[in-house]
Amino acid sequence: MYSLSQSVHVREATGEPLPSPFKGLEELDANFRRGELSITAAAGGTGKSMLALNLAVQSNVPTLYFSADSTAATQLSRATAIITGDDVKGIKSKLHAGRFSEYSNVLADRWWQRFNYEARPTPAVIELHLEAFHEVFNIYPHLVVIDNITNVDVGGSGSADEYTFSLEGLCDYLNELARETHAHVMAMHHVVGEYSDGLKPIPQSGLKGKISRVPALVLTIHKEVDGMGGVILNVSPVKNREGREDSSGETFASLSFNTRNMRLADLSANGVGF
């Protein structure tokens, strides 16, 4: 056990926020802190994976990304577009045509950002890759993305109650993993059917399985489409141990989504929905 003064020397990187490209979220004190677990929940196709990928690529921190929901071709094309600003469709065409060498140098600069594409990774696989990352780089990743948490294979669930319990148990496991490695573990998750269109603010109670007990930060995302191809992602901190929260989802920071190059950027410095 430690006194308060001794705790100064044992905290290491725990609690240190990752450099975030999203200033609107920072103004809401919604930071991705090392040693903590967060959950980002949204309807399918709303943009939760884009939030995670933009955080990883734009912050350029050591990252281990478990991409169970997206293939290598999809993530490679998206990440390359975010880095270079080039059109993602052109990038994907070059990838499939074998004309991708022009991007070799810029991708090589991201050598400490690693991806796993297993569709059903187990906790044992997650631990193995974390230890392999440490073996190669002599550090654990600062950011670990689980996309999606329901894709992690923790064994069968025979009922709705068992399903919720297994998700809660998985959250406990991921939270412990964050503490032990001093990584921020960012898990993507789904929402209940009432919010499946992704067009209205999602409260804390909208998370599938109601698994908001463990994470230090819970974000929900709903989108706006302007009819001319413009997309805005509104990110709500519905639980936040370190700062402002609004469990209704009505307080949010707004990010513009450039569908050409997959980049997310602050729509306004002060966010929206205050």
Automatic annotation (TrEMBL):
Lineage of origin: Bacteria, Bacillati, Actinomycetota, Actinomycetes, Kitasatosporales
Residue numbers spanned by region Disordered: 1-22
Name of this protein: AAA family ATPase
Matching Gene3D superfamilies: P-loop containing nucleotide triphosphate hydrolases (3.40.50.300)
Taxonomy, superkingdom: Bacteria
